[in-house]
């Protein structure tokens, strides 16, 4: 008796089509829940990252209201840490503001990237998307939209809303925990591991083109080379330089593709 034939591997495109069909069938409420579920792994780093911010901000001399104001109003971990560090170093207010803006310049690129997918959303919806737009909610949402391009705007908004609730609310709660009981956390528990891990988890899957890689490389190298500059000025130079490099590489790539296709440039 001959052995049963091994099952043929599933066609990758067929699997992707099946996943898209399931996504299209979800109601906005189901899409919201799906966004929550897919965000849960990020809590492993979001929560200690937020607790660490609460501890650091309190040690820098901020009171509880000021610490929570950072996490509720600013809602941007990297720029919050940057601002608190500069405040601790007694940097001028203008440097603190400019450094925070430089660190958060990527949000402008995130917004431009999301615009084609959320063009039909109302102004009110766009406003809360802008408020809840953080690295993790963007990374999850843009990948979801690109995998399932036929989703309706309500489905896209609901998915984004699920990621935002799952990530932003715990961030605020964990900040409060760090600010109120953080001093009781033993020094042996190194919460600062969360910062590099969370950014690696977000950025690595998105470095898919030469433009992405070039921007990342230039920004990292310049940030390291200029780390000795006072008041975080290295970040003010490295971030725009990285973005400009990525834009230049993207422009050159598009021109080359146009020439190869015989399109006059």
Helix content: over 70%
Principal-axes geometry comes out as globular
Mean of all residue-level pLDDT scores:
82
Q: What is the end-to-end distance?
A: 66 Å
Domain tally: 2
The helix/strand series, from N terminus to C terminus, equals HHHHHHHHHHHHH
Major sheet attributes: none
Overall radius of gyration: 21 Å
Number of beta-strand segments: 0
Number of helices: 13
Class from secondary-structure proportions: mainly alpha
Spans with pLDDT under 50 lasting ≥5 residues?
Answer: none
Strand content: under 5%
Short account of what is shown:
With about 260 residues, the protein is an all-alpha fold. The protein has helices at about 10-25, 30-40, 45-60, 65-75, 75-90, 95-105, 105-115, 125-130, 135-145, 155-180, 195-205, 210-225, 235-260. The chain folds into two domains: about 25-205, no CATH class; about 210-265.
Q: Keywords for this structure?
A:
single chain, 265 residues, mainly alpha
Question: How does this structure look, described?
Answer:
This protein is mostly helical and 265 residues long. It has two domains: 25-206, no CATH class; 208-265. Helix content is 72%, strand content 0%. It contains 13 helices and no strands. It has helices spanning 12-25, 28-39, 43-59, 64-74, 77-88, 93-103, 106-114, 123-132, 135-147, 153-181, 194-203, 210-225, 233-260. It is globular and about 55 Å long.
């Amino acid at each position: 008796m001959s052995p049963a034939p091994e099952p043929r591997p599933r066609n990758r495109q067929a699997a992707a089509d099946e996943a898209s069909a399931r996504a299209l069938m979800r109601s906005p409420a189901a899409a919201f829940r799906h966004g929550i579920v897919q965000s849960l792994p990020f809590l492993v780093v979001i929560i200690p990252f937020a607790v660490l911010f609460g501890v650091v901000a309190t040690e820098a001399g901020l009171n509880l209201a000021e610490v929570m104001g950072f996490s509720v109003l600013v809602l941007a971990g990297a720029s919050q840490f940057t601002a608190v560090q500069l405040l601790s170093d007694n940097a001028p207010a203008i440097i603190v503001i400019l450094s925070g803006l430089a660190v958060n310049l990527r949000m402008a690129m995130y917004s431009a990237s999301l615009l084609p997918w959320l063009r039909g959303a109302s102004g009110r919806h766009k406003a809360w998307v802008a408020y809840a737009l953080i690295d993790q909610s963007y990374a999850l949402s843009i990948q979801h939209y690109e995998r399932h391009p036929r989703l309706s705007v309500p489905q896209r908004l609901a998915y984004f809303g699920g990621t935002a609730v799952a990530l932003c609310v715990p961030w605020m709660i964990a900040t409060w925990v760090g600010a109120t009981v953080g001093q009781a956390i033993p020094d042996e528990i190194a919460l600062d591991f969360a910062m590099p891990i969370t950014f690696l988890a977000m950025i690595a899957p998105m470095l898919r083109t030469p433009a992405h890689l070039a921007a990342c490389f230039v920004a990292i190298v310049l940030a390291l080379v200029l780390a000795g500059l006072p008041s975080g000025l290295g970040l003010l130079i490295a971030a725009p330089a990285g973005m400009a490099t990525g834009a230049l590489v993207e422009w050159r790539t598009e021109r080359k593709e146009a020439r190869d296709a015989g399109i006059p440039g």
